[in-house]
Write a structure and sequence with these properties.
Blueprint (H helix, E strand, L loop, with lengths): L1 H19 L9 H50 L12
Length: 91
């Protein structure tokens, strides 16, 4: 009878351990969550960099237009032409 008790304890222990294991195969571990957070942060950073590049490009275009206008004015002054510069394009 002593053997039957040992076997019963062993079977119960195995059943308890099996039920304590993670049943959800799609559950994420801490490294997976950290990886997803890094991916999310990289995506957000990429979007912010793209937006900043667009704003910088627009500012560079405005600066180039202003520089061109200033150079035209300076050139006319050097020639002695005091007429107003041509109308600027509006966007």
């Amino acid at each position: 009878m002593h053997v039957y008790v040992k076997r019963a304890v062993l079977v119960c222990s195995i059943a308890w351990l099996a039920s304590a294991c993670h049943q959800n195969k799609s559950a994420e571990g801490p490294m997976e969550r950290a990886g997803k957070n890094v991916d999310h942060a990289a995506k957000k950073t990429g979007q912010a960099v793209e937006k900043a590049a667009q704003k910088t490009g627009a500012a560079a275009e405005r600066a180039a237009e202003a520089t061109g206008t200033a150079l035209q004015k300076a050139g006319k002054k050097l020639k002695g032409d005091d007429s107003p510069p041509p109308a600027e394009k509006t966007k």
